[in-house]
Design goal:
five-stranded mixed barrel; elongated; about 625 residues; mainly beta; five-stranded antiparallel beta sheet
């Protein structure tokens, strides 16, 4: 039935509309026209005939009302396009409805030649392959997580399944034909997962049992290096891997297995050990040749001079290669007779050839002790003749310590100038009070200890000892002298007399009254007048008194001895001469004229618990 309202909406008269229909029907009657259309199923593979190529598409007749199109990109670059009339298999991907009418059969049909080929290839593979089968294919490209292998269709080979030990770069397998075991087939997703590792493990498992039964400790066998590590190399023996440790590669020193081996290299090795339970095999490469340590004692006897190459320098010494596989240690203490070495690299460097002397050999531990200094004459053998005690020497102050100064007499030969040998009279707390670094000094040799390699030097010994000459004659008991306070202690005060010479003014001799703190009476730097009580050249001590300075005048006022009668040392009571320092409290002179008794208390000696350093006018450390 004709819908006349629809015809009117098209702005055509009935006559005009009829003419359009007649033109479209090509003069056929309605009964002669085939109004039926073929149904098209998406994702269906059909055969089509190429009509022509237009621009970026190839038009194909697939037997429907509309033509189908295949994009030119479906053909690989360089591949020739099909000629008109060529029959191709295509996949119906999409049907475009031009007018939005469901029953319109003039829409464009999108076809895919490439997908049709893949689906057919997949179906063909599914007919031939199942899980557990072994397949062979070409590794085509690297994708995230593994490789694509073409076995007719692309299958996925995970990186973890490429080999027993995952290679550093799976891209090295691209372009190689490999065999794999089919692990999983997902037909819905058209996905196949394969494993080369599983196939290798299956093959190796069969060979492993047979190989373990054949291997013997000590036997030689060829193998292929499969992997290198810091600690060694894994070698494929033909079904099982053995470990070739780095220490068993060479009798000499190597830092990394790559210095001797490369992956896929064929080598001959020796079977060292077999663990049948854990299926582990230890291999050796150096064991093919005898150990050079077997003849080391005869080749390098003790005391022999030999040449070697420095191969390693450590903080404690240097390792020297005598021959391949034989190294000795030159300890830092055996490098120089005289030089003080902080680190061996001050004398030797790696790859340097040096001459050494064999000192000791431990064949069992494979250790050789070597010496460098033994190749030269020991200068200490001549020290006694060159620098006998009493000789004058010149040297440079090389170093200062709390107890003295080291004087370099010649290169590598030092002598010690102790603080106690710097001055006869001056109290030296630190050597920098007398000398300074790099200063040139003349000293006297006091003693030489050749075994301990020590020379004792003296500076004060360049002059006579004033305690034996000048001091006893210059300072007499009873003499009044003055000097500055140089130091205050809890047991007394030190007073400077001259040129570093000091006397001790004991706390009991500070004043007539009891003094608890010397600083309450005198101050450092204050010049005071004191009386000499005691001069002891043997102990190098001078005892002083301040309270006794005016005793003679007081005695005159009280009817006692005057200066003219009893103020001299000859008329002083012996008990007055006991003052001073040290434990000795006896009189300095055994015979003199006694003076009248004094009411004041007799001066006491310095307390026995006073520090020894404080009880000396010039401490002798």
């Amino acid at each position: 039935m004709v819908n006349r309202n629809l015809i009117r909406s098209l702005d055509l008269s009935e006559n005009e509309w009829q003419l359009e229909i007649d033109s479209a029907s090509e003069g056929k009657t309605a009964d002669e026209i085939d109004w039926t259309t073929q149904e098209m199923d998406l994702n269906q593979i059909v055969q089509g005939r190429v009509l022509r190529v237009e621009g970026d598409v190839v038009l194909v007749d697939v037997g429907y009302k509309s033509e189908g199109i295949i994009f030119r990109s479906e053909w690989e670059e360089g591949e020739s396009l099909p000629e008109p009339g060529t029959i191709v298999k295509v996949l119906i991907e999409d049907v475009e409805d031009i007018h939005g009418l469901v029953d319109d059969s003039r829409g464009m049909i999108t076809l895919s030649k490439r997908k049709a080929e893949k689906i057919e290839a997949w179906l063909k593979v599914m007919e031939m392959v199942k899980e557990g089968d072994v397949v062979t294919g070409l590794a085509t490209r690297k994708i995230k997580g593994g490789l694509l292998v073409d076995i007719g269709v692309n299958v996925f080979l995970p990186a973890s399944q490429v080999d027993i030990r995952r290679p550093s770069d799976i891209g090295d397998y691209i372009g190689r034909v490999i065999q794999c075991l089919v692990l999983k087939i997902d037909e819905a997703r058209r996905n196949i997962v394969v494993s080369r590792r599983a196939l290798i493990e299956a093959e190796r498992a069969e060979k492993k049992a047979q190989l373990l039964a054949e291997l013997e400790i000590g036997s030689r066998r060829k193998g292929i290096v499969k992997n290198l590590a810091e600690f060694g190399a894994f070698v494929d023996l033909g079904g099982i891997d053995g470990l070739l440790h780095i220490t068993d590669m060479s009798w000499g020193r190597i830092n990394h297995p790559s210095e001797m081996l490369t992956i896929d290299q064929e080598i001959e090795i020796v079977i060292l050990h077999i663990d049948y339970e854990k299926e582990k095999i230890a291999l050796g490469l150096k064991q093919r040749m005898p150990s050079p340590w077997e003849s080391v004692e005869s080749k390098y006897p003790i005391g022999a001079k030999i040449k070697g190459e420095v191969v390693n320098v450590m903080t404690y010494g240097a390792f020297v290669k005598i021959e391949e596989g034989v190294e000795g240690l030159v300890h830092i203490s055996e490098m120089s007779w005289t030089k003080r070495i902080s680190h061996p690299n001050e004398l030797v460097q790696p790859n340097q050839t040096i001459e050494v002397v064999v000192l000791k050999i431990d064949k069992d531990k494979q250790e050789i002790s070597l010496g460098m200094k033994q190749t030269q004459e020991n200068p200490w053998d001549k020290v006694v003749n060159l620098y006998p005690p009493g000789a004058l020497v010149k040297g440079t102050v090389r170093n200062l310590t709390n107890y003295g100064a080291f004087i370099e007499i010649e290169e590598g030969i030092d002598g010690l100038l102790h603080v106690s040998d710097m001055s006869w009279t001056r109290k030296i707390s630190h050597p920098n009070e007398m000398v300074e670094k790099n200063q040139v000094l003349e000293c006297r040799v006091l003693s030489v200890d050749q075994d301990r390699r020590r020379i004792a030097l003296g500076l004060k010994q360049l002059t006579d000892d004033p305690w034996l000459t000048d001091i006893p004659g210059k300072y007499q008991p009873g003499q009044i002298v003055s000097g500055p306070v140089t130091k205050i202690t809890n047991f007394g005060v030190f007073v400077g007399l001259e040129n570093g010479l000091e006397g001790l003014l004991h706390i009991s001799e500070l004043a007539d009254h009891k003094v608890d703190n010397p600083e309450d009476v005198v101050k450092v730097g204050e010049v005071i007048e004191v009386k000499v009580l005691r001069v002891d050249p043997d102990e190098r001590k001078i005892g002083l008194s301040r309270k006794r300075v005016e005793w003679a005048e007081e005695a005159v006022a009280e009817g006692g001895p005057s200066k003219g009668e009893g103020g001299s040392a000859a008329t002083i009571d012996p008990s007055e001469l006991k003052g001073g320092i040290g434990s000795g409290s006896g009189p300095l002179f055994k015979s003199f004229t006694p003076a009248p008794a004094e009411p004041a208390a007799v001066a006491e000696a310095a307390p026995s618990d006073a520090p020894a350093s404080e009880s000396q006018s010039a401490p002798q450390e």
